[in-house]
Design a protein that fits this description.
The chain is an alpha+beta fold. About 25% of the residues lie in helices and about 45% in strands.
Length: about 190
C-alpha cells in the first residue's frame, strides 16, 4: 500500500496533504496580514484625529481675546449734526498677544481715529490700550446711528495668527458692542 496514493487524487498531480496544508496556512496568513494592516490604518486615522483635536485645544488655550470698552466724552448736536468724542479701550482678556495691529474697516464713514493704526505692539494678559475717536453724523428724523468696525490682527505665543472683529455702534446716544471670537488665519513660520 502506497501512503501517497489517494485513489483518483494522485499526489504528483494534486499535491500531498502537506502541500495543501501550506496553501491553507498561506491563505490564513494573508488574511491575518490584511486584517492587521486594516486595523493599523484605522488606528492611524484615529490618532490623526486625536492629534488634530489636541492641536486645536492647545491653540485655543493660547488664543488671546480682546474686549472693548467705550466712553463718550462729548455728545452734542449743532444744526442736525451730532458730534461725538469716544474713548475706546481694548483689554487683553486671556493670553498675551504679540505683533498686535489695529485697523478700522470703515475709515471713510466720518470717524476720525487718532491712533497709530499700523504700529505693532505686544500686549500681555490684562493690559489695556486706549485711543480717542471723533465722529460726526447727520440726524434724520431726530435719529442718528453709525457703526465702526475694528479689526485686530495678532499672534499668540505659538506664532498662530488671528483676526478679531469688534463692532461699535451708536444709536441715538445708546452704545452697542459686538465682539466676535478670534478667527485663526495661519500658522506662521519660525523667525
Amino acid at each position: 500500500m502506497n501512503i501517497n496514493n489517494f485513489g483518483p487524487f494522485n499526489a504528483d498531480v494534486w499535491g500531498s496533504v502537506s502541500d495543501w496544508a501550506m496553501v491553507a496556512v498561506t491563505f490564513y496568513t494573508l488574511r491575518y496580514l490584511r486584517d492587521t494592516l486594516k486595523s493599523q490604518k484605522d488606528v492611524q486615522s484615529l490618532q490623526q484625529e486625536n492629534t488634530r483635536i489636541e492641536q486645536y485645544k492647545h491653540r485655543s488655550s493660547l488664543k488671546p481675546t480682546f474686549a472693548l470698552d467705550a466712553v463718550t466724552f462729548k455728545d452734542d448736536t449743532i444744526e442736525q449734526l451730532v458730534n461725538l468724542i469716544v474713548k475706546f479701550t481694548f483689554k487683553a482678556n486671556d493670553n498675551p498677544a504679540f505683533k498686535l495691529s489695529l485697523k478700522d474697516s470703515e475709515f471713510n464713514k466720518g470717524w476720525q481715529v487718532r491712533f497709530n493704526i499700523n504700529s505693532q505692539r505686544n500686549v500681555l494678559k490684562g493690559d489695556e490700550f486706549s485711543f480717542y475717536a471723533g465722529f460726526q453724523v447727520q440726524m434724520r428724523d431726530n435719529m442718528y446711528a453709525d457703526t465702526i468696525t475694528f479689526i485686530l490682527n495678532y499672534n499668540d505665543a505659538d506664532r498662530n495668527n488671528y483676526n478679531q472683529h469688534i463692532e461699535y455702534t451708536v444709536i441715538n446716544g445708546s452704545h452697542f458692542r459686538t465682539i466676535n471670537l478670534p478667527e485663526f488665519v495661519e500658522k506662521l513660520a519660525a523667525d
